[in-house]
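Hello,

Following up on my earlier ticket. Below are the two sequence lines again, exactly as submitted.
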Amino acid sequence: MSHLLLTYSYDWSVVTQSLPFFMRGLTITIQIAVYSIGLALVLGLIVALVRMGPPPLSQIGFVYVQIFRSLSLYVYILFLYFGLGVAFHIQLDRITAGIAALTLLNSAYMAEIYRAAILAVDPGQREAARSLGLGTIATFVNVTFPLAWRVAIPSLVNQFTDIIKDTSVVALIGAGDLMYQANERNSFFQRGFEIYTAVAAVYFVMVVIVAQLAWRLERRLQRHLA
Amino acid sequence: MIFLDYQFDWSVITDHWRLFVQGAWVDVWVAVAGFGFACLIGLGSAILRQSGVPVFSIPSFLYVQVMRGVPLYVMIVWVYFGVANVIGINFTNFQAVIIALALTGSGYTTEIFRAGLTAIDRGQMEAARSMGLNRAWTYWHVILPQAFRIVVPPLGNTFVGLLKGATIISVIAVPDMVFVANELNVTLFTPFEAFTAVAIILVVLVSFFSAIVYFLERRLKLAT
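Thanks for your patience. The regenerated structure is below:
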């Protein structure tokens, strides 16, 4: 076994030669991640509110969450990019299809995070606001949501790291992202270990940065509780 | 209406349903195998992390961070095209995806086992040790049976996550249900029907396993 490990001669220069490609891919990866995070945050909140609404709405919200959580990103992307294009002439471009897939999948996860956070707010807060004469919407915007937001932040940011990792799947429809560039460079150099180790490191660093931000944000938001 | 000019042809699915079932079966057993190894690695890694010996706990911590920070897709090609080259073993595509699922999954299972072990009162270990049980014996007969109840529901969720992740294994030509759908799509050009079928199968599978997790969660909670 040990002699096998020694017969492989590493050539890390393929990574430095690929850097311009990786940088181009990285900008697309970040672009996809940022758009998906922003859209999923908004759509997730809407779904959470629908899910917590009166009966016909709440059932629709429940079914949405159950179905949209159950699908995997790859299935979403294939469906949105190939399926809709052929059947309904809705031909999304690759990056849009990727963003749409990530948004739909994560809106379901985020809806559950928002819902848990909103349910965690002491009902007394809402009752107090209502008895002071605030309307339903004003109570939600000024009282419930700001309190729920602090609870939701850590889990939401956890979800951001999943989105960053999941952007790699968009490479499968040729979106030109980091993983796509890695596959291209691997075909060119035939140096899978070096190329994919480098790319894994880039994803890892992005995830660590976001997780660190989450940790700081969490401490900041809970400072008043200490 | 442009929406109406497409002739849906669901016979593509009904004629080839056996292929879809076989493909779905591949997804399930690959996920089960990956999950099994992920649990073994995770338990070992969690015990190392809890050992209190920095030489063991620090590598375990770093291992978890790396495994959770790398996308499954990257892990699969890294194992299949990268590691295979370096150690000179050509993994079959099945072996590669099971290893990748086990590695990715072990990052999550380690944290779950760690949470389970931490939740067991220190007094349990101390009491067992003072009664003359050795460390390994205490783990096996005292700590693990109690931790089991805590870890089962989150482990079930990890399995569901791996099952969803397993739908990507066709990237290295493992003949799962997405692979089947892609093949049908290439030959018959019916992507909407093929991918709808895959989506329905996946929703059914995930709902089924989630229901089991939910049931176990309630059972284990009532028992305490």
